[in-house]
Amino acid sequence: MAGIGGEATLRGRALDGARTERVVGTTADFGDVLGNLKMAFMGAAEARYGRFALLADLLYLDLENGISTPRDRLYAGGSASVRTTGAGFVAMVRPVDETAWSLDAGAGVRPWWVDTKLRLNPGLAQGRTIGSSVNWTDPVIALRGRVRLSEQVSLTAYGDVGGFGVGSNLTWQVIGSVDWQPDDWLVLRAGWRYLSFDFGNASSSLNLAISGPIIGASFRF
């Protein structure tokens, strides 16, 4: 149930060769996103052997939102679309594995693919469409902790940070959940996820955050 907020800067050239730069800011909660959503998906998998684990997750969000333009009537409104795909692959080791709590630490990579498009409707000026597609891969370091409250209930917190100028300038995320395990093979989860990145190159700059409540189930094989 994701909302999205941030800013996209699209750079290019006008017909006369002059450099142009358009900055689009957008904030949309889950209700706004749901009304403009084309498709969304989030999933994760974990393979574990003793104290070692490999985590993988995939996030896809495709939405389009209407925007207003300045009162000079140069353009009669428009729309901004953002299609974001992010994946994560993190290898972790468990240095602490107690009955009441555990701690995992690790490192990995998070590749991103982001397509942004700005459509400006005709007003006094002719309508325009500006778009940019970028992709990059961020190194990340991660921590995850679990606290067991009872036989069936536990708390899980995960966080990672990365980019460091290798891919993006900075990316980070936090996930917190309350977990209920009614059976050995099933865990039901409810919590919150916040994911942010700040990326820039010659053609575009993206500073976006995706966040919202999560409800899910984990199946153990």
Give a short summary of the structure.
This protein has 221 residues and is mainly beta. It has one helix at 30-36, and strands at residues 3-13, 19-28, 37-49, 52-67, 75-97, 101-122, 128-148, 153-163, 170-183, 186-200, 204-219. It contains one helix and eleven strands; from the N terminus they run E-E-H-E-E-E-E-E-E-E-E-E.
What does this protein look like?
The chain has one helix spanning about 30-35; strands spanning about 5-15, 20-30, 35-50, 50-65, 75-95, 100-120, 130-150, 155-165, 170-185, 185-200, 205-220. With about 220 residues, it is mainly β. It has one domain: OMPT-like (Lipocalin, Beta Barrel), CATH 2.40.128.90. A hairpin with a 7-residue loop joins β4 (about 50-65) and β5 (about 75-95). The radius of gyration is 21 Å and the shape is elongated. The two termini are about 25 Å apart.
Features:
221 residues, Lipocalin, eleven-stranded antiparallel β-sheet, 11 strands, elongated, OMP/PagP_B-barrel, Outer membrane protein beta-barrel domain-containing protein
What is the percent of helical residues?
under 10%
Straight-line distance between termini: 27 Å
- Residue stretches low in confidence (pLDDT < 50, at least 5 long) are none
- The helix/strand order is EEHEEEEEEEEE
**β-strand number:** 11
Write the layout of secondary structure elements.
Blueprint: E1 3-13, E2 19-28, H1 30-36, E3 37-49, E4 52-67, E5 75-97, E6 101-122, E7 128-148, E8 153-163, E9 170-183, E10 186-200, E11 204-219
Antiparallel strand pairs: 1-2, 1-11, 3-4, 4-5, 5-6, 6-7, 7-8, 8-9, 9-10, 10-11
